[in-house]
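User: structure tokens for this one?
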Amino acid sequence: MGSRQSNAMYLVMVLHVMSPEELEIPKEQETTAAAKELSKDIVFGMISNSRRRKVLRFLQQQVKPGDSVSVRTLSEHIATEENDVPAEQVTYKQRKRVHTSLYQTHLPALAKNGVIEYDKRAGTVSAAPGFRQVDLYLGSSVAPSISFWQRYWLAVGVGSVIFTAILWSQVIPIPSGSTALLGFLLSLIILFSAVLFSVSNR
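Assistant:
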């Protein structure tokens, strides 16, 4: 009994000398119901990918608030849209390809930003409090990132025309042996841009 009383007295003394700041629970351990505010750059980055947009639109249009959907259902739905076939005609390979990209990349990215709740063990996805921050941007048929790629390809096209005009007019003296090399470098830039565009929209 004496031991319990001494322990209790010690605890009271410790709590008495500790400041309110020291007693405060660290923010990392707090469970906040409110979603963190996301910048427009983060929101646009999340919806720049077509598969992430399809996931978010499915949650927006097909899943009731508070309900969840399986990753398998999402994968089948996206594979149906991407291959333009009925759900019963989606092959295992088509669905698996989508499932892998969702599981490894897109769902973790959306969950990290508090937009969705992603239960890996159960294989389910639901809207999180942060979903409302991207909800407003999903009504647009064209994602904001598309305008970026339009501007990018326009810049590449204009730059190519200017480059070709300079070579043709010889405004800037260029050694004859360098013309082919410069043309090759321009082709590499265009090829790299095309690959980057394709990967970013997977």
